[in-house]
């Protein structure tokens, strides 16, 4: 009886150790990706051969930030282990079209190699983006310097702005964490007021984003086809209020 009991206890101990090891051994794809793309949905390759072993209670994560200005899109992405958070998938459109578009995606999962997304086809739809950014011919557009670059823009051509944009944006994003430490310069047309390209979101998975705007974005007046100036709604209301006060 004593021998059988000892064998049973030994078996339970071994089973518990194996279970503990299986909990601790979480393997995740690991990689860091930073690039400027013309068509991220078809050209960006998010695969990696590197593997990271995580501690117990961790998650596998894959996180992504995309910023489009003009014809170029900046892609900053990371895969690996993360030790805080809950299992979830998050997709945020921080600044929608028309004009500059900013999108982020984060996935936390708890199975080995579950962070295995290979491309961006489901996350980035250029046809919808182009359709939303198309400007009707009801007015003569204003122009903004337009570029997106890792580091600093070498050139920023002045491009016509789509309808429903109201001002020129010029700012820099500092992205750190998840193996990334990069600056991103962004210029272009937008309808966003102030330094809010990220719409108040500053964490994307393990990445932290700091936005700095050295120049204040000011509303730009448009001209209609007959040459008359058409002010943005907020400016027009302000001038109307001023006229009423002066009467």
Work out the count of structural domains.
1
The low-confidence runs, each spanning 5 or more residues with pLDDT under 50, are 8-22, 222-247
Spatial strand order of the main sheet = 2-5-4-7-6
Tell me, briefly, the overall form.
Answer: elongated
Task: Report the helical percentage.
Answer: 10-25%
Sketch the major β-sheet: 5 strands, antiparallel
The chain-level structural class is alpha+beta
InterPro entries: Fert-Immune_med_protein, LY6_UPA_recep-like
Subcellular location: Cell membrane
Organism: Acinonyx jubatus
Protein name: Testis-expressed protein 101 isoform X1
Which helices and strands appear, and what pairs or packs with what?
Layout: H1 2-24, E1 26-29, E2 31-37, H2 40-43, E3 51-54, E4 59-69, E5 72-82, E6 88-95, E7 101-109, H3 126-133, E8 139-140, E9 143-145, E10 147-150, E11 158-160, E12 167-177, E13 180-190, E14 203-204, E15 207-212, E16 222-224, E17 229-230, H4 233-246
Antiparallel strand pairs: 1-3, 2-5, 4-5, 4-7, 6-7, 8-16, 9-11, 10-13, 12-13, 12-15, 14-15, 16-17
């Amino acid at each position: 009886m004593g021998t059988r009991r000892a064998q049973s206890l030994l078996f339970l101990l071994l089973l518990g150790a194996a279970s503990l090891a299986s909990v601790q051994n979480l393997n995740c794809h690991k990689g860091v990706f930073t690039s400027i793309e013309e068509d991220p949905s078809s050209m960006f390759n998010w695969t990696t051969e590197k593997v990271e072993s995580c501690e117990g209670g961790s998650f596998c994560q894959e996180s992504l930030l995309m910023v489009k200005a003009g014809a170029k899109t900046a892609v900053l992405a990371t895969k690996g282990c993360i030790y805080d958070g809950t299992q979830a998938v998050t997709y945020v459109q921080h600044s929608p079209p028309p004009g500059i578009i900013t999108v982020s995606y984060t996935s936390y999962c708890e199975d080995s190699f579950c962070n295995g997304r290979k491309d961006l086809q489901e996350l980035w739809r250029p046809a919808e983006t182009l359709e939303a950014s198309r400007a009707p011919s009801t007015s003569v557009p204003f122009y903004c310097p337009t570029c997106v670059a890792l580091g600093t823009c070498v050139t920023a051509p002045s491009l016509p702005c789509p309808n429903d944009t109201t001002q020129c944006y010029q700012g820099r994003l500092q992205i750190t964490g998840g193996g990334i430490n990069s600056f991103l310069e962004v210029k272009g047309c937008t309808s966003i007021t102030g330094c809010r390209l990220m719409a108040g979101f500053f964490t994307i998975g393990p990445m932290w984003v700091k936005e700095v705007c050295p120049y204040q974005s000011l509303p730009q007046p448009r001209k209609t086809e007959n040459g008359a100036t058409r002010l943005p709604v907020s400016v027009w209301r302000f001038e109307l209020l001023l006229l009423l006060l002066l009467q």
